[in-house]
Amino acid sequence: MFDDIPVHVMSDNTQVDILPPAALAVPLRDSSDARLPLLAFVSDDDTEIALRDGFASVAGNAEIRRGTILHAIKFLARQPTPRCLVVDISRIANPLDELDRLSRVCKPDVRVMVIGEETDLDFYRDIVRRMGVAEYAHKPVTRDIVSRLFVPQFTGASVDVTASRGGSVVAVCGARGGVGTTTVAINLALHLGAATRGHVALLDLHLQRGTTALMLGVKPAGGLRLALEQPERADALFLDRVTVAINERVRLIAAEEPLDGPPSCASAEGMRFVMDLLRRRFNYVVLDLPVPATHAEQEAMRVARHLLVVMAPDLAGLRDADRLRTAAAKLRTGQTSIVLNRVGMTGALPMPMIEAGLGGKPTVSIPDLGKQLRRAANLGSPALAESASFRKAIALLVQEVSGTNANRIAGGRSASLLGRLFGR
Predict the structure, then answer these.
(1) From the CA atom positions of the chain, what is the Rg in Å?
(2) Strands (E), 249-334
(3) What is the CATH number of domain 163-404?
(4) Among the listed ranges 302-311, 321-330, 370-379, which one has the minimum average pLDDT value?
(5) Of the candidates 99, 126, 276, 373, which lies 20 to 30 Å from 361 by C-alpha distance?
């Protein structure tokens, strides 16, 4: 972005340096031991947490300071340029001018990533294509956004286009049975559809004892098991026959197989076939995934961009949540988040003990709402209508997996084009 490179002349004759796109792909090299691998200036707690968590696996020694691009300019005028720099331009009156000023105090090989509040696509093009910024993300920034957009810029890795093509898969797994996994999966799917205005598939892979259809007050259609076992027999009308409309945005795929046979004869090939069909048709695919998972179900977990591990606040849940997180890491599943359900239930472990066992705070905590949730399940209605605190927790999960601002969910407003691109 910065010395001996082409210059773009603005309408007011201001000169803005441009970094050729090819330069972004060049791995960073510098013999100076004084250069930090990653330095960030951000203006709020949520963004700081997202950066720390998103970069944890590749830049554990990242230095993250509180401030905006103005603080970065002042700091870097006196200190060595880091290899990668993240700056916050929220509430900055003239961000393009400040990016120009930043270029004057940095080495030319620095890779700059920007966080702001602007969602306009033209603004994104201005700073990424014309000013040489490596990447831009608008708030709210989640760990997933950091992992998908910023981490490849830091590591110099190329983006796997094939893996990112199609809808985003969110696998919801219980650390143990009876912890509320299906309740979380159902209400996450409904809230995702309302918040993102995208099309959502809810896939219940409990073929014999699944309860998603019961809890939604519908009867599942047939055909899912056939497609999982013999994908070559599933034709182009498979999705139309096997899905049940819950509302205009959400469709359910479930089964009620007899109990006198094996719980699942799905093949890995069949699972890949079904997941591929769903990802082509839907923006989000939410899986209610059994644990322990068969080889076929592990295939579904492998393509998941997010794994939500639902646990209760007890010792067995803590142990098994950690074991499930380890198993997901071996499968190279995407971002893993811990959902602590039934907080405050009788006999629950204290939160400091849970945090010590997990190595950090749960991503989302849901209070113990046994009576409201049981009533909703028996009535075949979404639990979202029963509790404001439950709605708030699910809204935070929606923000975690989609990047959609939780404050927009109640109003059901559509996200901007840039928001949909980053939240995909």
Answers:
(1) 23
(2) 250-253, 284-289, 306-311
(3) 3.40.50.300
(4) 370-379
(5) 373
Residues 6+ apart with CB under 8 A from 64: 39, 40, 42, 48, 51, 52
Give the start-to-end residue ranges of the domains of the chain: 7-159, 163-404
Three-state SS at 168: strand
Q: Could you tell me the fold of the domain covering 7-159?
A: Rossmann fold (3.40.50)
HSE at residue 301, side-chain half, CA atoms within 13 A, is: 27
> Which two structure tokens, joined as six digits, stand for 28?
């960073």
Q: What pLDDT does residue 376 have? A: 62
405 phi and psi angles, rounded to 5 deg: -60, 125
- Stretch 307-320: mean pLDDT: 95
The phi, psi pair for 225, rounded to 5°, reads -60, -40
CB contact set of 154 (below 8 Å; sequence gap of 6+): 37, 38, 55, 58, 59, 84, 111
Task: Say if 7-159 and 163-404 have the same CATH topology.
Answer: yes
* End-to-end CA separation in angstroms for the chain: 28
**Helix (H), strand (E), coil (C) string for 8-51:** EECCCCCEEECCCHHHHHCCCCCCCCCCCCEEEEECCHHHHHHH
pTM over 0.85: no
Q: Other CB atoms closer than 10 Å to residue 14's CB: what's the count?
A: 12
The neighbouring-strand residues paired with 135 are: 113
Separation CA 393–CA 397 (nearest Å): 7
AA identity, residue 395:
A
Give the contacts of 328 (CB within 8 A, at least 6 positions apart).
301, 307, 309, 336
User: Is residue 221 over pLDDT 80?
Assistant: yes
Q: In which residue are the tokens 């309302």 written?
A: 194
Q: How far apart are CA 176 and CA 342, in angstroms?
A: 13
Residue type, position 46, single letter: D
